[in-house]
Amino acid sequence: MKPFEQIVTEHGPTVLRVCRAVLGPVDAEDAWSETFLAALKAYSNLPENANMEAWLVTVAHRKAIDATRAQTRQPVPVERLPERSTRAERPEDWDGDLWEALKALPIGQRIAVVYHYVAGLPYHEVAVITGGSTDAARRAASDGIKNLRDTYARTASEGEHR
Amino acid sequence: MMTAFEPEVRRLFASLPEVDEEASARLHSRLVAAAERDGVLDVAYRTIDTPVGALLLASTGQGLVRVAYAREDHEAVLVKLAASVSPRVLNAPGRMDEVSRQLEEYFAGRRTAFEVPLDLRLSKGFRRNVLTHLPEIAYGSTQSYAQVAAATGSPKAVRAVGTACATNPLPVVVPCHRVVRSDGSFGGYLGGPEAKQALLALEATT
Predict the structure, then answer these.
(1) What confidence tens digit (pLDDT) does each residue in B82-91 have?
(2) B99, B116 in Cβ contact below 8 A?
(3) Contact at CB, B40 and A40, closer than 8 angstroms
(4) What are the pLDDT digits (tens) for A62-107?
(5) Most buried residue among A44, A97, B23, B111 by CB atoms closer than 10 A?
(6) What's the complex ipTM?
(7) How far, in Å, CA of B91 to CA of A6, rounded?
């Protein structure tokens, strides 16, 4: 079994992208931290041939679902954060427009898009994580991408002239 | 897998950085702190630069468990630690602050003995007896393999003393470099003959 440090090096950046795309800049780092701490604890009991990326995304998915529920329950603090000044204060934050577009997607589409296109998992693995069929995962991702093209791609091309 | 996607889809996520060094560093420290707090950081490690090259230092909750020379291949040493101690291994320098400070003093000629807790679990039986004896060889002096064998109560085990030194998991800190051949020549060393010579020269001049 690899030293866990190597798991963090190999998969940390992708899991961070996944957390950011599912949860946005504010909650992503908490979700990443909880994911890797939970993964570290469970690591020694993991089968040698486990698909690490899929396993980490599964752990992150549970954390993300918890966090999404919390976001829905307490919308006020999130909305109170002025997006522009947040970006100015935290230079590491990524494009707020992309997050706005992702946030607007139904959660099923958002996670299917992110797990397939950002984490790079095949649809049958996305389906295992989200608990639906492979076809449903493929459909959700395809609808999600269509919606993103309509909302974000347009904003992005307008943004180039800003 | 990403390469299979249409470039246009990849462009959608272009503003989401593939690697964010600053955030990664911050998250790594946070993971180390949480792992320490929850008692699941089984092996913490770091590397330090010394006059005998980069040394890998690794500690369990009980003490320093491994010191490794670069020629032992630090990556390979970590893989072995993951197998023999625990795969919960993180680059977490904090736990090695004290031993790092003492090593720095040693290499500057300002320290003649190490006072840090040791975890000798990687050495068993007779080899462990030998390691326990080694710190009794005074700084700046040497003993022959035969003398060490006699001191550990097995005068005939000269060759086994050689093996114990060659497999010392804690070189420098447990001074196997002070064990030399009866004819006064250096003998082998897991850090290489130059390293053994450098340590003995350092101890002879201070």
Answers:
(1) 999 999 999 9
(2) yes
(3) yes
(4) 988 887 777 776 554 444 444 444 443 344 456 678 888 999 999 9
(5) B23
(6) 0.91
(7) 10
pLDDT at B1 exceeding the cut of 50: no
Per-residue b or e along B123-160, where b marks 16 or more CB atoms closer than 10 Å to that residue's CB: beebbebbbebbeebeeeebbbbbbbbbbbeeeebbeb
Q: How many CB atoms lie within 10 A of CB B8?
A: 10
- Name the B residues in 81-120 with CB < 8 Å from any A CB: 81-83, 86-91
- Going A149 to A154 to A157 to A159, the CA torsion angle's sign is negative
Q: Could you count the other beta carbons within 10 Å of the beta carbon of residue A157? A: 9
Q: How far is CA A134 from CA A51, A54, A112, A121, A125, in A?
A: 18, 15, 10, 12, 8
Structure tokens at B203: 């101890």
Pairing state between β B53-59 and B43-50: antiparallel
CA distance B96 to B3: 42
The first and second tokens of residue B74, run together, are 């630090």
State the average pLDDT for chain B: 94
